[in-house]
Amino acid sequence: MPVNPMNRREFVQKSAVTGAAVAVAGTVGTGTAQAAEAGHGHAKPPKAPKTWSFSILGTTDLHSHVFNWDYYTNAAPVDSKGNTYGIARIATLVKNIRKEKGADRVLLVDAGDIIQGTSLASYFASVDPITGKNGKRGPKHPMAIAMNEMRYDAAALGNHEFNYGIEVVRTFEKQCDFPLLGANALDAKTLKPAFRPYTVKHIKVPHGPDIKVGILGLTNPGIALWDKDNVSGKMAFTGLVEQAKKYVPRLRALGCDVVFLTDHSGLDGSTSWGDELPYVENASNLVAEQVPGIDAILVGHTHVDVPTYTVKNAETGDDVLLSEPYCYGYRLSRFDFELELVDHSWKITKKTATTLNSNTVAEDPRITELLTADHQLVVKYVNTAIGTCTAAMSTAEACWKDVPAIDFIQQVQMDAVKAGLSAADAALPLISVAACFSRTATIPAGDVTIRDVAGLYVYENTLYGKKLTGAQLKDYLEYAAKYYHQVPSGTAVDTATLTNANSFWDYMYDMAAGVDYEIDIAAAEGSRIKNLSYNGTAVADDQVFVVAVNNYRANGGSGYPHIAAAETAYSSTNQVRDLMIAYATAKGTIDPSAFAATNWKLTQGGTPVF
């Protein structure tokens, strides 16, 4: 059961940056402490405790996973290790810790990517949008309902918050009882914070000074690339280190005893966009190392489980504690802080972090009660039949073979771009590039539902037509071919170890349709593309192609060469997934023989691998 709100006292202070009211919540002690405060005779006032402890719990990359349910397979997910996910289970873990620790000693924070990632997320962004349609007010987002019920204290903005446009994330922000933080998300014109940079929470200590906890939120500067169409000219995104250097001292100046960051940014210092932006994508380790005054960081974005990780600050030598819980609600990070009162000021004496597995608890009945109707609505929607398919299509081998399931995506992309080209550009050869987003997607023979198509194309990407020369196209495909490990001729190929998917992920690997080529995995990187041809003729370096490509890649996502700077021949706000659904609906029957073609293959020194 939720804690009685009458047991909580709200403190409000003005944000030094925005002037907006910042809610600062803490729970006041009851019972004997209150009696002592009231005073009885000449009893001595109780002394403040010299030590105190509290916890900060953290989630990240929930991606609208409410329950342990896979909308693409229409079943609970099967995990060989028994893992489960969903915010409903996280809610149970949070309740248990609040009961163990005391609700007044627990803060709850998220590190972003909340409103995108499942069919439930798509439904409340596009089908029945929270922004409303036809002049009617939209519904409340299920994630806002759940997180409000769980009494989150703050959440950082994730890059996927912007997939549906700024209006959607602003509407979600209004529906939340906690602030969405983004100190490096700026108004493009004024370069002032477009969202609240930080919030300050008070941990109440009976008869002693509050412990002030400053929570600073930082998001990923890659938003400027990945959602360029939604944010260009409206918002700007600077580096995490740069903004942390500005706001961490401000939080200390406000008297914060503990400074805690929630970063939608990984902790390995890597970047996926090459030189398209001057900032680091996964910068949490750099923030910890380069910005003094930080005690701990909740890390997000990279979908890995890092229970505890320590970085030494280069200036102070102090240890900064970091933790990243695995995505979707598989894990919950728990930071525990012990403090001592020294000269009327709280000092951290010990801090630890770990992650907790959500499979150890059941789904919270209150969250289940609140969200079951929304969940069932989406289940019904995604199981709506939109046509039939003459033969089953699978992505099980799509990462090393040209398969009809990916050709389906390519055909839809080329059809849409072709219909929107000018007369001059329509005379140019048209090709398409697309990636495999899931190795378990299947379009069955027989009836095809919305969830079948959604399982094949899980992202909210829109579509572009970009112009590349033959030389640029070859560079593009050479970059994609980095996906494969080098396997010398005469050496057996094991598909389990063939791809470089731990650093060059499946979603980063583009396959092309409309041109023929070979990828020689026996050759070194940069010289793997062989026999690149169009309509049976070798592609010339100066030949110009229109390339159908999603907006993520077109704007520089994954660091592909040439594409971001290439001339645009076509663009649309229609999502590729919706185009695929429309294709199936309009034709009534998906016939793989109409578009399937083996136009690329892996070789070893010219010998086909498969």
TrEMBL record:
- Official protein name in the record: Multifunctional 2',3'-cyclic-nucleotide 2'-phosphodiesterase/5'-nucleotidase/3'-nucleotidase
Matching entries from SUPFAM superfamilies are given as: 5'-nucleotidase (syn. UDP-sugar hydrolase), C-terminal domain, Metallo-dependent phosphatases
Write one Pfam family the protein is assigned to.
Metallophos
* UniProt domain 5'-Nucleotidase C-terminal: residue ranges: 386-563
Query: What are its GO cellular component terms?
Result: outer membrane-bounded periplasmic space
Q: Does the keyword Flavoprotein apply?
A: no
InterPro entries reported in the protein's UniProt record: 5'-Nucleotdase_C (IPR008334), 5'-Nucleotdase_C_sf (IPR036907), 5'-Nucleotdase_CS (IPR006146), 5_nucleotidase/apyrase (IPR006179), Calcineurin-like_PHP (IPR004843), CpdB_N (IPR041827), Metallo-depent_PP-like (IPR029052), TAT_signal (IPR006311)
Question: What PANTHER family does the record tag this protein with?
Answer: 2',3'-CYCLIC-NUCLEOTIDE 2'-PHOSPHODIESTERASE_3'-NUCLEOTIDASE (PTHR11575:SF6), 5'-NUCLEOTIDASE-RELATED (PTHR11575)
Give the reactions, separated by semicolons, that this protein catalyses. a nucleoside 2',3'-cyclic phosphate + H2O = a nucleoside 3'-phosphate + H(+); a ribonucleoside 3'-phosphate + H2O = a ribonucleoside + phosphate
Query: Coiled-coil ranges per the record?
Result: none
Give GO terms: molecular function aspect only. 2',3'-cyclic-nucleotide 2'-phosphodiesterase activity; 3'-nucleotidase activity; metal ion binding; nucleotide binding
Q: Which organism is it from?
A: Streptomyces fuscichromogenes
Q: Which cofactor does it need?
A: a divalent metal cation
Family to which the UniProt record says this protein belongs: Belongs to the 5'-nucleotidase family.
Q: What is the lineage of its organism?
A: Bacteria, Bacillati, Actinomycetota, Actinomycetes, Kitasatosporales
GO terms under biological process: nucleotide catabolic process
Where's it found, cell-wise? Cell envelope
Q: Which residues form the Calcineurin-like phosphoesterase domain?
A: 55-304
Please name the PROSITE patterns in this protein's record.
5_NUCLEOTIDASE_2, TAT
Key words of the record: Hydrolase, Metal-binding, Multifunctional enzyme, Nucleotide-binding, Signal
From which domain of life does this come? Bacteria
